[in-house]
Amino acid sequence: MSETVNIAILGASGYTGAELVRLLVRHPRARIVALTADRRAGQPMEAVFPHLGGLGLPTMVTIAEVDWSGVDVCFCALPHGTTQEVIAGLPQHVKVVDLSADFRLFDPEAYAQWYGHAHMATDLQKSVAYGLTEIHREKVKAARVVANPGCYPTASQLPLIPLLEQGLVQAEDIIIDAKSGVSGAGRSAKESNLFTEVTEGIHPYGVASHRHSPEIEQGLGWATGKDVVVNFTPHLMPMSRGILSSIYVKLVGETTAEDLHAALVKRYAGEPFVRVLPFGTAPQTRFVRGSNFCLIGVFKDRVPGRAILFGAIDNLVKGASGQAIQNMNVMLGFPEDMGLEQQPLFP
Ligand SMILES: NC(=O)C1=CN([C@@H]2O[C@H](COP(=O)(O)OP(=O)(O)OC[C@H]3O[C@@H](n4cnc5c(N)ncnc54)[C@H](OP(=O)(O)O)[C@@H]3O)[C@@H](O)[C@H]2O)C=CC1
Ligand SMILES: CC(=O)N[C@@H](CCC(=O)OP(=O)(O)O)C(=O)O
């Protein structure tokens, strides 16, 4: 791979597209050569996002107008359901990180069941890697197409997978109570995301039916080698960014909450983006804002035999664009934290 890689971002006028631009303009090996939009095609980036002005970015075009001959890496930040055919049609020399959910479920029947239409690129699906980087790094390294995980699945799987792999927590009866900022829903206008609908309150949604349940269960199933069922409930919070996943687990045998903490500290030692806080310390979404970090907290429960885990991420960074760049770095053999060194924007 040459010194600099040429990047196309599909869906650049959306929240995750803008976040990709914000991060990639500081990446020493990346050059943005193409940006696409749908309704906003033909507009310069700064007309949509004034904070991204003066960077010499290409004008946004439609996907059909992109000249792929000069593109090395494509970040696909399109709504799910629009992506499988686009990616299946790209030339083979283009490596792809897909931020949508289109390639995250590896069973096409499960995909059809949860997304309401048949999978449109089942052959390609077989060679895709699931890009939860810390867990699937070797597969990401070898892949041409990476399915970047969903935001809730990232915040939920990172605390759980090492513990399930080691048989320290029970695979049954896992309760995931997660909260998200409103940017998780994207930038397109929806009545449910109006200021008046989301401010000064919190509400659950997708109760017992959210499509991130099968994605989380798939990842936990890979970790345990058996079917896992989770009780996952997302909530919408009156904040722009951030996800906090509160996870209630049952311990196996004589395992203690302190054992869980020790196992997580050991598993994530040396990982640039996962930090396990001191035992009994709770992460907050404010502590990860704008950064690619996942902060994990472990607490002993008052109820014997139980423990409480927390995972906090910025949904637009570790939950989307930051992890996507982390995956690109792994795919291309760049240092994994290249372009992602930003510390959180606290307070
Ligand atoms: N927001 C988040 O926190 C996360 C999002 N994701 C996933 O990433 C993807 C992008 O999300 P997000 O940035 O929030 O979405 P947005 O709604 O903010 O942006 C969507 C982008 O796709 C373009 N677009 C919409 N429809 C089409 C179409 N039919 N053909 C081509 N382009 C189209 C839009 O263009 P225009 O503006 O011109 O309409 C815009 O650039 C989604 O699949 C989402 O599920 C994943 C993890 C977290
Ligand atoms: C707050 C909010 O609405 N969040 C989105 C999830 C964002 C994300 O990661 O979703 P994808 O799987 O669509 O890529 C939701 O619950 O649908």
Automatic annotation (TrEMBL):
Enzyme Commission code: 1.2.1.38
**Active site annotated at which positions?**
C151
Task: Report the subcellular localization.
Answer: Cytoplasm
Source superkingdom: Bacteria
* Gene Ontology molecular functions: N-acetyl-gamma-glutamyl-phosphate reductase activity; NAD binding; NADP+ binding
**HAMAP family found in the cross-reference section:** ArgC_type1 (MF_00150)
Protein name stated in the entry: N-acetyl-gamma-glutamyl-phosphate reductase
Q: Which organism is it from?
A: Novispirillum itersonii
